[in-house]
Amino acid sequence: MLGYVLDDVFIHHLAPSGHPERPARVAAVRDALAAANLAGHGQQVAIRAATDDELGRVHGASYLATLSRTVPGASGWLDGDTYYSPGTWDAALAAAGSVSELATQVLAGALGSGLAVVRPPGHHAERDRAMGFCLINNVAVAAAAARAAGAARVAILDWDVHHGNGTQQIFWDDPTVLYQSIHQFPFYPGTGAPDEIGGPAALGATVNVGLPAGSGDRDYLAAFDEVLAPSLERFRPDLILVSAGFDAHRADPLASMQVSRYGFARLAARVRRLADRLCAGRWVVALEGGYDLAGLAEGAGATLEALIAPSDQLASAAEVALADASPGAQRAIGETLRALTGGGAAVALGAAR
Ligand SMILES: [Zn+2]
Question: Is the pLDDT of residue 164 over 60?
Answer without folding.
Answer: yes
